[in-house]
Design a protein that fits this description.
The protein is mainly alpha-helical and 160 residues long. The protein has a single domain, classed as Four Helix Bundle (Hemerythrin (Met), subunit A) (Up-down Bundle), CATH 1.20.120.610. 85% of the residues lie in helices and 0% in strands. The protein is built from seven helices and no strands. The two termini are 27 Å apart. The model has no long low-confidence stretch (mean pLDDT 95).
Length: 160
């Protein structure tokens, strides 16, 4: 039993990394989108014509979950789960696990923080309907760091 575990430790580590990237970025996105949705519901209850604009702002924190899923999928392609008859060394498993950390960690925190900015932007939209562009710009600024984390995770896993 122990030998089977050790023989598959590289794959186990890669799968743990893939799960971590999907879970953490997904949880952060769910939290961010949820907060923005709550704020949007308040604005829409007063000004239903702002639904489309609020929806755009609400959706922005959800991208980190997509980024985490993408990295998780790319890592799975390097495992027997989606990659066929693949064996990974322990070193490769560690490398793939580490490759998942940037988007897992940054995705988790940036999605929650982007949700907070989206809430503020939606509040601004409720007071000034012509401010949707400004709100989007403010919200997208947080996205920059999620994109950098996605790029880092992608480049690291590509090298394995």
């Amino acid at each position: 039993m122990f030998q089977a575990f050790m023989d598959n430790l590289g794959v186990i580590l890669a799968l743990a990394g893939a799960a971590l990237s999907v879970l953490m970025a997904g949880i952060g996105s769910a939290k961010g989108v949820g907060m923005a949705g709550e704020t949007a519901a308040g604005v829409i209850s007063e000004k239903p014509e702002r639904f489309g604009q609020c929806l755009v702002l609400e959706l922005l924190p959800g991208t980190q979950g997509i980024y985490g899923f993408l990295i998780g999928f790319l890592v799975l392609l390097k495992t027997p789960i989606l990659g066929g008859d693949v064996t990974l060394t322990i070193a490769q498993g560690v490398q793939l696990f580490i490759a998942c950390l940037p988007i897992a960690i940054v995705g988790f925190f940036s999605a929650k923080l982007q949700g907070r900015v989206a809430c503020s932007a939606i509040g601004l939209l409720g007071k000034r309907g012509d401010s949707v562009g400004q709100g989007i710009v403010l919200t997208v600024m947080v996205e920059t760091y999620a994109v950098l984390a996605l790029l880092a995770s992608f480049l690291i896993q590509s090298g394995v």
